[in-house]
Design brief:
CATH architecture: Alpha-Beta Barrel
CATH class: Alpha Beta
Number of strands: 10
Strand content: 15-25%
Number of domains: 1
Shape: globular
Structural class: alpha/beta
Radius of gyration: 18 Å
CATH superfamily: Divalent-metal-dependent TIM barrel enzymes
Largest sheet: 8 strands, parallel, barrel
Helix content: 40-55%
Order of helices and strands: EHEHHEHEHEHEHHEEEHEH
Distance between the termini: 8 Å
Length: 279
């Protein structure tokens, strides 16, 4: 299996975006996971979407100059999981999330990305779980179709606090929406104490993958403290024919204590693990 590796630009939020891209190119990976996170990424959706064509052209130029490709465009419409979730009960908020997704499709297509990631939605208090689930499925279904029409794959990240916080819920979501895939991150399950063997069946549904250290009670930790058997994960990827990028995805934020490791050093350690693991 030939590995395609990427690194998230939001791994290095304390430097300029140009310098983050320089660092990623120096790491010797081929791709970049671009974060479009409202209020917490280098590239802000509100700025990038003022003129989608120009913004995408500028990004592609910067990537081309460094020999990089956009591996994934990760859209987060708000700096929390609820206020503009794709399945928000308020139609006006769903409309904004939908508009930004449509902009992201154009943005991705123009900068050469063939993969988009979004959160899958959340459960809302005051609403039945069935209503929140059904609304999320409806919203994801048309998003999958729009992506397909533009030769783009949509992956959702089954994450802490989402409608799919456990492997069984992620499986159910994939089954409910033909064409939907996963941007798979074991750490969201490991953090909750879920063993690798329960997460493993999700690999066959993954179109993008995030790798970083994780352990029970720690969404992000060092390579040394990591408890996820990534060598086994790579073996399963080979067996299931995985063809997507493996994105080195350390982030730096106070949320979930994700500001307590040396992102550059830990990224290098996982990069070297991927380079030296024989399958």
């Amino acid at each position: 299996m030939k590995l395609k590796t990427a690194c998230a630009d939001f791994t290095f939020p304390l430097v300029t975006h140009d310098h983050a891209l320089d660092l990623i190119a120096m790491l010797g990976v081929t791709g970049v996971d671009i974060g479009l996170f409202h209020n917490r990424s280098h590239l802000q959706p509100t700025d990038q979407f003022q003129n989608v064509a120009r913004s995408a052209r500028n990004l592609k130029k910067k990537l081309d100059e460094r020999g990089l490709k956009a591996a994934d465009i990760f859209l987060q419409v708000a700096d929390n999981v609820e206020s503009h979730a794709i399945n928000h009960p308020q139609a006006s908020r769903r409309k904004k999330a939908a508009l930004w997704y449509e902009n992201t499709i154009e943005y991705a297509a123009r900068c050469g990305a063939r993969h988009i990631t979004t959160p899958p939605g959340v459960y809302f208090s005051g609403q039945s779980r069935a209503a929140s689930w059904s609304r999320a499925c409806d919203e994801l279904a048309w998003r999958v179709e729009l992506a397909r029409r533009n030769s783009i794959t949509l992956g959702v990240e089954a994450h802490i606090g989402s409608i799919a916080p456990r492997p069984a819920a992620a499986q159910r979501l994939i089954k409910a929406i033909p064409g939907l895939t996963l941007t798979l991150d074991y750490t969201h399950f490991t953090h909750a104490g879920i063993p690798d063997r329960q997460v493993e069946p999700l690999v066959q549904h993954a179109s993008h993958f995030h790798i970083r250290g994780g352990a029970k009670g720690r969404l992000q930790c060092s390579y040394a403290d990591n408890t996820i058997n990534y060598k086994r994960v790579l073996k399963v990827m080979k067996e299931t024919g995985y063809r997507g990028y493996i994105g080195l995805e350390y982030c730096w934020t106070v949320w979930a204590r994700c500001n307590e490791v040396d992102n550059l050093s830990e990224t290098i350690l996982f990069r070297d693990f991927l380079k030296t693991t024989n399958l």
